[in-house]
């Protein structure tokens, strides 16, 4: 009688391509073709040559189909500003828009294909954000945030005083917490972190405890000849992140760990110089733009678009 014997074959667990230990594998560097443990991803791989330009992805994302983003323009609005440097959406479907250094702050409401100006203020702004009570918080470069009442339109000092620091950015979280970025002086202000080589900037992703999760410095192809200069940042309904790269007319779409999912060239649909972003509660994206270089006319545009896939 013949007997068959089953042979049990076990597969050795994958090891880190750097330390070759049995630490759990969580990452893969697409450029190095190496699997990485969390220790080597954080401590060792960043020391590799040109590591800042490498694409490191979660192994759960390896093999997934590429993200396809579609954008369709619903409406286009002309303004009387030279640039839409900051933009924030209100509960009553109006928008706060600011030219930043142009010292014009307006509350406008879309009316068909036109914008109706509800109120206007002459002030420098470094950042704006609408509270859950529909009031506007404004960073003006002073030590206190200003506030505009949605009911009366009155401009007052808010309760947020950062003295001796100067707030330069303000954000309201979904659970109504006020986040403020400050500097010691207002002589040299940047919206995002800037590094030394040719004006290239970066986006730093921080965890709840303040630890650095990831640093994104742009795409190696998009920003090969033109530095990465993100002007604004917005979170999508799917908890991904959109950065508008104003000098390349590109939206970079990152996951919530700060890794590039895909990008979209707004110039493909004739949206040029995207400068500010704001989502409505229904998921419509508003893109505020700057005028082209060399033009003196004040007709910066705002686009209402539908974005899908991210």
UniProtKB/TrEMBL annotation:
Keywords: Metal-binding, Zinc, Zinc-finger
Chain ranges of the B box-type domain: 11-59
PROSITE patterns xref list: ZF_BBOX (PS50119)
The keyword Cell membrane belongs to this UniProt entry's keyword annotation: no
GO terms, molecular function: zinc ion binding
Protein's name according to its UniProt entry: B box-type domain-containing protein
Annotated organism of origin: Mytilus galloprovincialis
Organism lineage string: Eukaryota, Metazoa, Spiralia, Lophotrochozoa, Mollusca
């Amino acid at each position: 009688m013949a007997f068959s014997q089953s042979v049990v074959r076990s597969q050795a667990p994958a090891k880190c391509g750097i330390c070759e230990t049995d630490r759990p594998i969580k990452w893969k560097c697409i450029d190095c073709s190496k699997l990485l443990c969390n220790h080597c991803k954080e401590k060792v791989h960043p020391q590799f040559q040109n590591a800042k330009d490498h694409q490191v992805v979660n192994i759960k994302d390896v093999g997934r189909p590429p993200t396809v983003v579609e954008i369709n323009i619903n409406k286009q609005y002309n303004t009387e500003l030279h640039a839409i440097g900051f933009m924030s959406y209100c509960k009553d479907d109006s928008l706060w828009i600011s030219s930043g250094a142009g010292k014009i702050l307006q509350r406008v409401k879309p009316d068909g294909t036109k914008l109706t100006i509800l109120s206007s203020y002459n002030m420098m702004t470094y950042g704006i954000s609408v509270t859950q009570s529909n009031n506007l918080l404004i960073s003006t470069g002073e030590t206190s945030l200003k506030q505009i009442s949605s009911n009366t339109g009155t401009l007052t000092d808010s309760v947020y005083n950062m003295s001796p620091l100067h707030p330069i950015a303000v954000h309201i979280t979904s659970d109504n917490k006020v986040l403020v970025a400050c500097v010691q002086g207002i002589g040299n202000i940047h919206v995002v972190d800037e590094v030394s080589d040719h004006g290239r900037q970066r986006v730093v992703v921080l965890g709840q405890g303040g630890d650095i999760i990831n640093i994104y410095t742009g795409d190696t192809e998009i920003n090969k000849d033109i530095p990465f200069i993100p002007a604004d940042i917005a979170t999508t309904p799917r908890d991904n992140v959109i950065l508008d790269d104003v000098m390349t007319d590109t939206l970079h779409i990152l996951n919530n760990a700060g890794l590039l999912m895909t990008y979209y060239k707004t110039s493909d649909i004739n949206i040029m110089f995207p400068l500010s972003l704001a989502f409505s509660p229904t998921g419509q994206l508003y893109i505020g733009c700057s005028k082209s270089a060399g033009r003196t006319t004040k007709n910066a545009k705002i686009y209402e678009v539908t974005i899908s896939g991210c």
